[in-house]
Amino acid sequence: MTADLVNDYLFDLSVVRGRSENTIKAYRRDLAAFFEFVENRHLDYLNLTIGDLNWFFESISQTHSKASQARIVSGVKGFYAYLFQSGVITASPFAEIGSVAIPLRLPKALTITEVELLIGSIAGSSLVDLRDLAMIELLYGTGMRISELSNLSMADLYLEEQLIVVTGKGNKQRLLPLGRHAYQALLNWIGIQGRMKLLGKSKRSRDSLDAVFLNLRGTRLTRQGAWLVLKDRANRVGLAKKFSPHVLRHSCATHMLDNGADLRIVQELLGHASVATTQIYTKVSNDRIRSVYFSAHPRAIEG
Fold it and tell me: Which end of the chain is more exposed for a tag (fewer CB within 10 A), N or C?
């Protein structure tokens, strides 16, 4: 019965609330860990007390970051809210418990010089070079997420208009412009010397024919596969320690704001539901401005 309730809850999150596939997978793992805790301590999950929950919170605080703790609490709390709404329980044990506070974490961003170093390191015209350059130019040029990149299909490209449709969190779509470099790199990749050539190595499944980015077997490049490719490229130029799945997205936002872009426009480009999320990048930019100011101005020595 428990497994059925969990599956129903996750189905509701996915279909009704539009949560991403990665979120659903994370919640499934978190709930499995939660029920393992409940089982090991011989608790009844339908009759938990605040004390039981605090016991669980204490256990995860020893092994998880603040952000991970907050996600776990959110998933379990949502599960009990679902049980309450479905009439399985008459009251949620979370009723008197708030969310776990997450400390502000400033996103990492490469400098423009580091981005140019990464891009400049791909000088060849092989299948892999054409693909990897197009991936990097798109991620940095549009600020899209790496999962959005791997999910791109040919029908999402409006090349005559230099536009691309991206499907983000909650299956919300947004239209992104393609800058000159991203546009040219994408054209080179999908041409006869790139993607089309690689398609000849696949069984030409419908998904392979639709996918913009392919692995060396000619099938759709997964999010994990794309990340490994990018990590390898960063490692080759000594940027591995600064690299993360979202570093090009963060760099795009930071550099645009550094150059005077309107916060609301950057919010639309990134697909943030709230401008408050985008405002994190203004803190990055303000810190950089302060650093440059105090190091460059002759009468601005910090006291």
Answer: C
Q: pTM above 0.85?
A: no
Catalytic pick among 71, 246, 250, 255? 246
Q: Which two tokens stand for residue 211?
A: 């996918």
* Residue 131 annotated to the active site: no
Shared domain for 59 and 132, answered yes or no, is: no
- Reported as a single tens digit per residue, the pLDDT across 235-247 is 999 998 888 878 9
Catalytic annotation present for 169: yes
Is 293 marked active-site?
no
Whether 71 and 116 map to the same domain: the answer is no
> What is the phi-psi region of residue 65: left when phi exceeds 0, alpha when psi lies from -120 to 50, beta otherwise?
beta
Catalytic status, residue 183: no
